[in-house]
Request: fold
Amino acid sequence: MPCTRRTLIAAFCCSVVVFVTYAVIVEPLVFPDALDMVAVYSSHTGAIFNHAWTAVKSRYNLPRDLVVDKREYQNANYPCYPTSPPENTFIQRQQKIQHQRRHLLQQACHQYLGSDQFSATKMEKTPEVAFLLENYHLLYAQTAKIAGTSWDRVLLVLNGVANSTSQFGQSETIDLTKITVPRLENYQHSDRSFILSNFTTFMFTRHPFSRLLSAYHCKVGPDATEEHVHRGFYDLLRKRIQKKYQRTKPDGIPNFRDFAQYLVDTNSFSDPHWKENYKIVSPCDVDYDVIGHFETLEEDARYILTSVGADCLVEFPTSEGSAATNSSHTDTLVEHYKDLPRDLLEALYERYKLDFLLFGYSFEVEIDGEMLQLPPPTDVKFKSKVTHE
Reply:
């Protein structure tokens, strides 16, 4: 009996179903390259591709929103096939942490800014600096003095510009990122809305006093490199601080107290290295998928890279080769802030108040025998479950 066209089509469809089922569920147990075969075969059929990748994510308990570019599968060169299940406890712990951080932010935006976070008008404001990797559907909202150079190194590797995170020096890394990695501001408004709604978006925050101290060390203090100091503005800033407070020093370097006092007295908080973080990343207007904390940098970075299938392409670099200042250590913070006048500390807190409240930070220091607690109890409208460890 001759085969009809309908019979041939039915036979083909059955063979496809059998192949996908066998390759995804059974074959990986004995044939580690089975996922490669599924990828190559399904690159020509979008529906089968989606089904196969969904099965892979389910099998290895990967995040549901993990996205992989089909073009990578087409070439059968995508290196991040999950050959072994990721640490389920790590993924689950990170998901719980992110839920807590996002919940805190949503509450804080409503309580302290009267904002219904992530409303229909959320796209009216966008991050001041945001880099995109279209192949990974990834958007990174960058804030200065929060591991920005380390993330630049990662972006260059994923964008195919660098072979490793250590290939270029700090200045080269920053310059190359600006030149080669697309920025959100360069897209049309309609495209920005689509990107913010559909890409995996992440930002990082840091203890406000730690970030301010790091900026001082990096740009103005005695540990600042010549490269930083002699970039015009920071050299001039040093001279202005010295002139204003008439504290002549042989090296012309103001101490941290004078630096902080100058910022408060002159309202000089527009520099991106010490500008309030909430003004830079607009966390009450952008629905970030991941809110990273500098204090848990390595774990958060690993979670982000795993979420977009890039964890085996690049490892988040250490601070070696960047302008690390060790300003996040509790002892270092207390040492620098305990000698500040109480009114100056309170003025700095008022400036960074929303960074404290939106992201769950606090600070305690003893001044003149009395403990100063920031935020003060009168500012806290609800308890935060967010930790920074």
Summary: The beta strands are 130-133, 138-141, 200-205, 290-293, 363-367, 370-374. Residues 22-53, 55-78, 117-123 have pLDDT under 50 and may be disordered. The CA atoms of residues 276 and 352 lie 6 Å apart.
